[in-house]
Amino acid sequence: MKQVQLKNILIKDVASIKEAMRNIDQFGLRMVFVVDKNNTLLGAVSDSEVRKAIIKGIDIKGKISNILNKNPIILEEKDRKNPYQVNKIIRELYERMPGSEYILAVDKKHRPSELIHLRELNLKSRASGKKTHRGKHILIVGGAGYLGTVLCLQLIKSGYRVRVLDSMLYGDYGMKKVVKQTKNKNIEVIVGDARNISTLVRALTDIDAVINLAAIVGDPACKDKPEMAIETNYLANKALADACKYQQINRFIYASTCSVYGQSDEDKELDENAPLNPVSLYARSKIQSEESLLSMKDENFSPIILRMSTLYGYSPRMRFDLVINTMTKDAVKNKQINVFGGGKHWRPLLSVDDAAQAYIKCLEAPLEKVKGEVFNVGSSQQNYRIIDIAKMVHTLVPGSQLMVEKSSDNDPRNYMVSFAKIEKLLKFKARHSVERAIQQMKQVILGTEIEDVNHPQYYNIKYLNETF
Ligand SMILES: NC(=O)c1ccc[n+]([C@@H]2O[C@H](COP(=O)([O-])OP(=O)(O)OC[C@H]3O[C@@H](n4cnc5c(N)ncnc54)[C@H](O)[C@@H]3O)[C@@H](O)[C@H]2O)c1
């Protein structure tokens, strides 16, 4: 993470609220200090204070001095030599702004003199030296899902605070496991529908960055519930992005899919500029969202699009309707793996754990590197033909039979994808293999955690069909 410079977090009292928010986002301190023309400190404004003012109707073109906190926590020259006093001040800082890393020191004339990293103060207080620097507050819409629950756990482990907004479409069993595992620390769950504007606005209170995973996921589910798919995958995402932009929440990460490449006839890796050839409403709704988000980009709003490979592996909210998970479950439970259309189609794969890491990379990357960018998310080593996936499962589940039907596959998707951009720009590298996931899922399927692997809650289309 970049060292924050004093000059970057000072702003003149005549600057606009919008300019102040740009500085806050760019330099990562989550606040700016406001000075007059003589450089005397007048006060400070934090991102959450600005957002509260915006939602109460303030004009962001107005002066920052209109919403000034005149008593920010700072270190005055007289206190610097007194360790007891320094500790007291820092404790107050952590209480008011969890995750703070720096404190502003002022000279005798109340002019900012230095931005001190808390580490340099040799504090004895509980927060010193801890990995609190990331303590940002992240909203994950759709965070109770297959990817969302894994991402929640990884974010909390990395020191973030997480809020989930999810309608619990497939039940809350996954989220309950997350809350239990984290001892309900640094996680807050709002059960609500992302299609409701006031729910969205409530969920955005005090949030630093947003990840939108909420969707009707998969071609069959969208085909079966088209209205729900359009409302959730496109319209609700648009409303969420609009609400973020209005409240000056800059970083917005959107879960798209490699399904946007649809049916490609060439055995050639497709990069982010390849033509899109969607074969389903699911893919079209994701493309519409990508386009609307990118068109909203401006100096204070930074959408980031992640086109993910097909995911696999264990999650607290398990899905057995994803190719590797389905094949593993069928091999373990039915001793049979079915492949249609000869299994010649290409599919890029990625473990759900690695996918979650890609989101963290995007949260932590300098904004200028990711703003308005589209990334394919996966691994160059994990473009597979369906038949090869089946053979792998077959080898790792002894006693299973491989049944290959030559008849045409009713899933026409066929794409081999290039991940050079994310590997190069964000140094993203998948760490987990398909083999490891198959072994791990075998244990889960045979264990006691999942009572009935055929329960509709593990299959999006089955569950939606039975419930709505
Ligand atoms: N799983 C994959 O292989 C894969 C691949 C590429 C892209 N994606 C994308 O990743 C995201 C997450 O997928 P997943 O596999 O975790 O799916 P999932 O179905 O497990 O999770 C989606 C979550 O969104 C929630 N949700 C749906 N409608 C909502 C609404 N109106 N309001 C609030 N919450 C709502 C659901 O309750 C669910 O918890 C999706 O956007 C999906 O398109 C997934």
For the structure shown, list the relevant keywords:
468 residues, alpha/beta, CBS-domain, Rossmann fold, 2 domains, seven-stranded parallel beta sheet, three-stranded mixed beta sheet, 16 helices, 20 strands, 19% strand, binds nicotinamide-adenine-dinucleotide
Largest sheet: 7 strands, parallel
What is the molecular shape? Answer: elongated
CATH T-level topology of the largest domain: Rossmann fold
Radius of gyration: 24 Å
Commentary on this structure:
The chain has 468 residues and is of the alpha/beta class. The strands form 6 sheets. The chain has a 7-stranded parallel beta sheet with strand order 9-8-7-10-11-13-17, with helices on both faces. Strands 1-2-3 form a 3-stranded mixed beta sheet. The protein has a 3-stranded mixed beta sheet with strand order 4-5-6. The chain starts with 9 loop residues before the first strand and ends with a helix. It has 2 domains: 6-121, Roll (CBS-domain); 137-315 and 350-380 and 410-432, NAD(P)-binding Rossmann-like Domain (Rossmann fold), CATH 3.40.50. The chain is 37% helix and 19% strand. α8 runs parallel beside α9 (281-296), α10 packs parallel to α13 and α10 (323-334) crosses α15 (434-446).
